[in-house]
Amino acid sequence: MVNVxxxxxxxxxxESHKWQAVExxxxxxTALYNVKQxxxxxxxxxxxxxxxxxxxxxxVNKEMYIFEDKGGRKMALxxxxxxxxxxxxxxxxxxxxxxxxxxxxEGVYRYEQPQAGRYREHHQFGAEFFGSELPCFEVELLSxxxxxxxxxxxxxxxxxxxxIGCNECRAEYNKALRAFLAGVNxxxxxxxxxxxxxxxxxxxxxxxxxCKEIYKSAPQxxxxxxxxCKQHHKQVLKGLDAAGIQYxxxxxxxxxxxxxxxxxxxxxxxxLAVLGGGRYDNLCxxxxxxxxxxxxxxxxxxxxxAAAETRGIEFADNTPYVFAAAxxxxxxxxxADIVAQLRNIGVSAEYDLMGKSLKAQFRYADRQGFPYVxxxxxxxxxxxxxxxxxxxxxxxxxxxxxxxxxxxxSAVEKDRAQS
Length: 419
What we know:
CATH superfamily of the largest domain: Bira Bifunctional Protein, Domain 2
Number of strands: 16
Structural class: alpha+beta
Number of domains: 2
Helix content: 25-40%
Oligomer: single chain
Radius of gyration: 27 Å
């Protein structure tokens, strides 16, 4: 047997309702904020990610799936969502009218060690806002992220937030950070030694416990911010206060991508980040477009579902509602007709497609979670009266053929309202 590749996971029918609930929440909240969906290819030219994510990041150095196509072009599977969205927005001139606000729900691919909540193929809900340097841009995005997480059922997440400054003030910080790293060079990991030369800010994103402990004594970016960046950050926090978004400042938060400027953030469930992002004012220019300030976030769907279940958050299961059970072969055609009537008025319904016995049909209906079963036999067809059984308590209701579909729908809607 050929098994599923390492680091990937099948989404099985019994799990699909959870994904549908997350996607429905994303589409509901983005619609409230007038954010439109965008879809980009699963693979892009590798250069796109090399230029945007940064060659000092683990994604580029260790995790990207890179391959050469039959035309000799160097391609890569999408390792994150932002770069492809920016490429598409620029290529299709979507910034002619600003702001431009888009969201995506798509798979991303990273060759990393599989662990809880992390897969080599995982899925993201993300949003990217293009056009404004104003602090209210971050507040608008974070308000939408907060509302999405509340729609899922999270009510006490923590927002970690920091500013990593602009290119100008970060240059001075990098000098101080390099000097600090030179003094601890014999104590940090090999990756951090490499990052110290290429992009010292990336060292602060290291996950090695001994390095994390060392960096508690590192210089802080807040001591090197220019006046504009200080004022911008102050106004972002003021906007969060006005929006009722609780937060705490984490001076060591930098996020793992090179394109971020100024604001970076993570919504966390305990120590687990379930949604994160920041501002990236220079990326459009890096990819050949005009200067266009942007903010965005990404949310891992697998990780979000796992965190929700840990908290006891339940996802509504769109179970089928009515099963038409045939007592005899002659009743199967009537069952098919009843099911068609129900489906035509929006009631989920099914009948036996396997030629099972009546007992086996009831067993199937019970295992599939049908709340109601209509039994059809010779007597029912002759009298045009049917019995609707409520599986939860065994109670029955007589249903006439003339108003069968409407009466069943009324019973279903009453049951849904009570539950």
